[in-house]
Every structure is written in C-alpha cells, then in structure tokens.
Amino acid sequence: MSTVSTPQLRFSFLLREIENLSAVRGVRSLGMVLIRLAGLQAVNQSHGYSAGDQLLEDFGRRLRTIARPQDKVYQINGTTFAFLIHNPSHQGHAVLGAERIAREARVALELPTGRMRLSAHMGVSLMPESAADAASLLHQCERAVAESRELDEPYTVYTRELGTNLGSSSEQSAFDVDEVLQKNELELYYQPKVDLRSGRLSGAEALVRWDSPTNGIVSPGVFMPAIENSRGIHALFAFTLNAALRCACEWAHKVPDFKMAVNMSPGNLEDPDLIEAIADALGVWGLAPEQLVLEITETALMRDARTSALKLAELKALGVRLAIDDFGTGHASLSYLRDLPADELKIDRSFVAPVLSSERDRRIVGSVIQLAHAVNMEVVAEGIEDAEAMQVLLGMNCDVGQGFYFGAPIPADQFHAEWVARFAQSSKARA
Ligand code: C2E
Ligand code: MG
Ligand code: MG
User: Fold this and answer.
1) Of 113, 132, 220, 283, which has the most beta carbons under 10 Å away?
2) Domain boundaries in the chain?
3) Domain 169-430 is of which CATH architecture?
4) Ligand 1: does its nearest atom lie under 6 Å from the Cβ of 350?
5) Mean of pLDDT values over 125-132
6) Shortest-distance ligand to the CA of residue 193
7) How does strand 114-116 pair with strand 119-127?
C-alpha cells in the first residue's frame, strides 16, 4: 500500500494513476471512495492552522491503517482524499470501505487546544461495473459526494445495482414532471454569485430540486436525464423560470444590480414558443430583461449549432443575458467565443479546483479570463471551495465567483435571510 500525502497532488495525476492501475494485469475491477472533509475552516479559525494540518495528517494516517497493502490512498488539494480499492471482492466491499472511513472521520483528535473532529462526505463508484473509464469513475464519485452533502449522509454509492438513490432507473422512471409539479414537489434552491472585487452579492443561480416523498431531496443530476428529451423539459423550464423570477422581482428591489440565473436544457432551445414565454414571464414579474441570465452548457449548444445560434440571437435581441455554462468540459472552440452573443463565461469547476496546485491549470484559467475579457464577456468561476482559490482567481482578474466557499444552494427563504437581507440597500441609499 502506498500513500501520496502531498496537498499539491492534482486530479489529473489521480486520473493517470487510475488508468495505469486498471491497465495492470490481474486488476479486474477498481473501487473508488472519494472523500471530501468538511469543517477544516472552522478548526483553522478556532484552533489555528497547525491544528488543522495535524487533523488532516491524522486522518490520512488513519485512512492508511484501513487500506490493504494493494489499496491506495491519495490526498488531493488538501481536504479531498481518494481511496482506491483493488479488485473489490464484491460491490459491498467498497461500501464497507466507506463505512469504515466514515467511522474514522468521526474520531476526535485530542490537541492541547481541545478536542476536534471533522466530518466527511463521500462518493463511491466502481470501474468497470459502473464507470467505463477513469474520468467517469471520478465524475461519478464527485456526483455521489455532492449527493451525500445534499442529503447530509456520510456516503452515497453511484451504482444502480446497490439500489443507490443516484441515477437509479427506478427513480428516473418515477419522475414525471407534470405529476411532481401537480403535487408541488419541485423546489428551487439558490446559490449566490459574488462579485470578487467588491465581495458583494451580484446575483443567484436557481437550481432545481425534487422533494421526493420516498427519497427526500433529489438533485437534478438524477432526474434530468429522464426528461431531457421529452416534452417535460418545457414544463420544467416554465416552472423554474417563473419561480426564479418571482423571487428575483422581490430581491432585485433590495439588492442593487441583482441578476437571476436560470439553467436551460438543449431541448428548451427547440421550443418554438421559448422567446414569447420568456418575454411574458419578464412582463408578469416586472423585471428588466438584463436582470435574467440564461445559462446554457457548451454541450447543449453543440447539439444543434445552427438552431442554437439562431435562438441565442433571438434571446439576445430580447435583451436577456446569456451565459455559457461549464466552460471547458465540452467541445467549444475559439469560434464559439467569436460567434456566440454570450455575456458570461462560466469556467467549469474542474478547472477552478486545481488553480492552487497546478501552475499549468492556473495559466489556462488566466488565459481564458483574458480571452473572455477581450470579447467583453464577464467571467464567473464555478466551484470555488476555499479562500485561497478565491484569492488566486481575483488575482487573475476573474469577475464573479460561485461555490461552496461563498455558499451552497439553499431554499428561497434561507437565501433571503442569509444573502438578500445582508446586501439589501434602501432605495434612498441607492439613489
Ligand atoms: P450547473 O448549472 O453547473 O450548476 C452548478 C452545480 O454545481 C450545482 O449542482 C451546484 O450545487 C454545484 N456546485 C456549486 N458550487 C460547488 C462547489 O463549490 N463544489 C462542488 N463540488 N459543486 C458545486 P446541482 O444543483 O446538482 O446541479 C447540477 C446541474 O443540473 C446544474 O449544473 C445544471 O446544469 C443542472 N440544473 C440544475 N437546475 C436546473 C434547472 O432548473 N433546469 C435545467 N435545465 N438544468 C438544471
Ligand atoms: Mg448553471
Ligand atoms: Mg456549471
């Protein structure tokens, strides 16, 4: 068993390791437990940075004690660990690993400054049973971690066979937009977008959640695939647009220059009534078009480049803002930046996360920011998880940040209490 316990380790290194390991003769299967520790910031603040470091080291040591000689433990970007299980004897093996890790994460460390403990959220997946390659293995584990955090569970398994609540076919087929809308089970969560230079709230992104009676709060990654290519996608967009604008109409009165971002699926661009529906919703909620941001992923734009370009031009003519979401994950080329009438470029979090550890990634992100600015686009960095990353991005002249460092997506009333109230200005002060 080997441990690489350097905080400088990058995800790209982990991907190469997984690829190399899976190519070794005799390795039939690899299980991965991706572990994200939480609470370190509070420990650093209350007990000092060396206590935080000690806690991380101690956790890494305890992980090594659970690993078998052939398993591997990696520490990435400080608070993320990956535990690779060689030839898990059966699928439950990886789950047992996650359960043991969860127990280790709960163990408190005694320091002269007091007792401290961290909490962990984990995602489990297996290759080739669930993931076809290293990148999908990591991606599935990431999604499972996000789900664990969402549900506040120690771990989530990304395999259909294990009856997971992530992407399981039973859950997808149980999702019928019209039905859940009728039962009032869809809700929007809001995540803050923060102006990096001033630290002020610049807007929110509306992210849909399904409050399922059997599974609790379910993320869009689970149920969206089931409706992406159906008529349901239009009903979902109509719901998100109206629910988000209803909040925006109140919040934009309180927070200067507040913008509400709503996600669109590829299918939405094919709706002949799209422009009218957006214009109507803006009219109903009394919002100026530039207060609405429509986020569209590169991949969505690629689906039918010509229709997309035409629809985007119509949307632009309406005056709404357009954002290219998850930039860097699709196949966007320079011609996109040249031809698309987009106002915002959202750099995907897979590029943002390594800015601290990798000079190369830092340079790529820096160049993308310059490029976007050269064509008058505002740059939003997604997935900022700590103050250091935020500082690096600010130093690179990034405009807006979004991510757990500022705040996770939360329900509307909570967003109002925690964000809108904090940045509200009276109309007198604004005049
Ligand atoms: P997205 O538009 O890129 O949204 C950002 C996703 O990243 C959200 O996941 C958010 O919870 C997560 N996130 C934010 N900050 C961090 C961070 O610091 N670290 C990490 N690891 N993750 C972070 P969520 O809410 O599960 O949404 C997933 C995707 O589902 C969204 O990605 C978007 O493409 C889609 N989606 C969400 N709501 C809607 C909707 O109403 N309509 C459509 N068409 N798609 C939606
Ligand atoms: Mg988005
Ligand atoms: Mg995104």
Assistant:
1) 220
2) 11-163, 169-430
3) Alpha-Beta Barrel (3.20)
4) no
5) 82
6) 1
7) unpaired
